[in-house]
């Protein structure tokens, strides 16, 4: 599998998103559409970005009872996205139901990945607030194992955990890793972060990069720097 950089298009409107994407004259970056943009603009934003020739990771992190998730994934499967996700905390049954709903009648479907723990979650918060007594590493490896057992393609995890997920779930199991910052950049509100070059070494398949690209003075140059460091 080829590595790729996914740009997190965390904008509040279609106009802001298109203004940003219009800056890319040569590349068609893989983009992530998250809750903010999807809730503001609805399915039409997905269709328009797809029409422009971009691959799309629809990042809505579904988490509900299995039947609701199955029906919702069935709707999302009609949007022709390339990747979508849910929370691994929703149990193996929920993940299996999601996979069933996402798979179209002809057997095709987008890549489906599960969120293990958000990159803003520290071990201390996980234990004190969520009452999960295992270590964050053990929890992430367990959740990844559950996702694999359910038939999913991979997980979202921080780059710091990508290696151990691969060790436990196999090299083919996809790791999509947010929490990537340039060595000379600001880490923002995320606590488990690393650089594109280090993410490549650890074994990430896709890195999701937001503000270091979208808030850069020259987003295209920042994107190219990311690709250069991560893909080579």
Kindly summarize this structure in a few lines.
The protein is of the alpha/beta class and 232 residues long. The protein contains 11 helices and 8 strands. Strand 3, helix 4 and strand 4 form a beta-alpha-beta unit.
Describe this structure in words.
With 232 residues, the chain is α/β, with parallel strands linked by helices. Helix content is 44%, strand content 16%. It has helices at residues 14-21, 35-41, 43-51, 66-76, 92-102, 123-129, 136-150, 159-169, 196-202, 211-214, 219-230; strands at 4-8, 30-33, 56-62, 83-87, 111-115, 154-156, 174-177, 206-209. The chain has an 8-stranded parallel barrel, surrounded by 7 helices. The radius of gyration is 17 Å and the shape is globular.
SSE layout and pairing:
Blueprint: E1 4-8, H1 14-21, E2 30-33, H2 35-41, H3 43-51, E3 56-62, H4 66-76, E4 83-87, H5 92-102, E5 111-115, H6 123-129, H7 136-150, E6 154-156, H8 159-169, E7 174-177, H9 196-202, E8 206-209, H10 211-214, H11 219-230
Parallel strand pairs: 1-2, 1-8, 2-3, 3-4, 4-5, 5-6, 6-7, 7-8
Helix pairs in contact: 4-5, 5-7, 7-8, 9-11
General form: globular
- Structural class by secondary-structure content: alpha/beta
In DSSP terms (H or I, runs of 4 or more residues), the helix count works out at 11
The first-to-last residue Cα distance is: 14 Å
User: Topology as H/E string?
Assistant: EHEHHEHEHEHHEHEHEHH
* Cα Rg: 17 Å
**How do the strands line up in the largest sheet?**
1-2-3-4-5-6-7-8
Largest sheet: 8 strands, parallel, barrel
Beta-strand content bin: 15-25%
What proportion of the residues is helical, as a percent range? 40-55%
Mean pLDDT: 94
Low-confidence stretches: none
């Amino acid at each position: 599998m080829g590595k790729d950089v996914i740009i997190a298009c965390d904008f509040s409107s279609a106009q802001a998103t298109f203004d940003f994407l219009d800056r890319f004259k040569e590349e068609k970056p893989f983009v992530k559409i998250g809750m903010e943009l999807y809730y503001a603009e609805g399915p039409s934003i997905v269709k328009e970005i797809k029409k422009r020739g971009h691959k799309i990771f629809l990042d809505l992190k579904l988490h509900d009872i299995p039947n609701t998730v199955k029906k919702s994934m069935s709707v999302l499967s009609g949007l022709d996205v390339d990747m979508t996700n849910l929370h691994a905390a929703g149990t193996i049954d929920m993940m299996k139901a999601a996979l069933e709903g996402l798979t179209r009648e002809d057997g095709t479907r987008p890549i489906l990945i599960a969120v293990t723990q958000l990159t803003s979650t520290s071990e201390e918060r996980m234990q004190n607030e969520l009452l999960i007594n295992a270590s964050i590493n053990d929890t992430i490896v367990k959740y990844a194992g559950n996702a694999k057992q359910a038939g999913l393609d991979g997980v979202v995890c921080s780059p710091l955990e990508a290696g151990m997920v691969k060790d436990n779930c196999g090299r083919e199991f996809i790791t999509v890793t947010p929490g990537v910052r340039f060595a000379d950049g600001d880490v923002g509100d995320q606590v488990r972060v690393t650089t594109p070059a280090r993410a490549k070494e650890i074994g990430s398949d896709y890195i999701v990069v937001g503000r270091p690209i979208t808030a850069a003075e020259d987003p295209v140059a920042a994107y190219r720097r990311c690709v250069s460091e991560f893909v080579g």
